[in-house]
Design a protein that fits this description.
Layout (H helix, E strand, L loop, with lengths): L2 H12 L8 E3 L2 E4 L2 E8 L9 H25 L3 E4 L1 H8 L8 H5 L4 E7 L2 E8 L8 E7 L5
Antiparallel strand pairs: 1-2, 2-3, 3-7, 4-5, 5-6, 6-7
Length: 145
């Protein structure tokens, strides 16, 4: 997908109603006050850690850079913050609100923009178990904890 297609996906999320209950389907997770969507997924990284793995990671990181640049052009400078403390707080038993619980379980940091009452986020996710890297985007009206 292109950066323009990623931006279109984010624009559509901003006008899509939030469901009353959490819903997950494929690369999308939505619930009261948020939508998260996988806008791109790296090719299978494989078990051998070969050259294909590095290329897939590089491609995802390049798409992430292009997306954050485009969003910065639209919404101004991003706030880049670590979500590792959220992960640690969750592991200690604190209830972290959605979507921040899901975000913090899959990445170390996010680029976030606050605009028009929304938080727009972009990040690269990799879940436990070595799933391929995924470029994620989301919109939420829920402030980061």
């Amino acid at each position: 997908m292109t950066t323009a297609e990623h931006l279109d996906t984010i624009d559509r999320l901003r006008v899509t109603d939030f469901p009353p209950e959490p819903v997950r389907s494929g690369g999308r997770s939505s619930g009261p006050g948020y939508h998260l969507v996988e806008v791109s997924r790296a090719a299978d990284l494989g078990e051998d850690g070969g050259a294909g793995r590095g290329e897939a990671i590089d491609q995802t990181n390049a798409e992430y850079g292009a997306l954050t640049q485009a969003l910065t052009g639209r919404w101004g400078e991003a706030q880049v913050f670590s979500v590792m403390s959220l992960r640690a707080r969750g592991l200690e038993g604190e209830e972290i609100p959605a979507p921040w619980d899901r975000v913090s379980s899959s990445t170390d940091h996010v680029h976030a923009w606050q605009a028009e009452g929304w938080w727009l986020v972009a990040y690269v996710a990799q879940w436990d178990g070595g799933e391929p890297y995924a470029l994620m985007a989301g919109v939420t009206v829920i402030d980061p904890p």
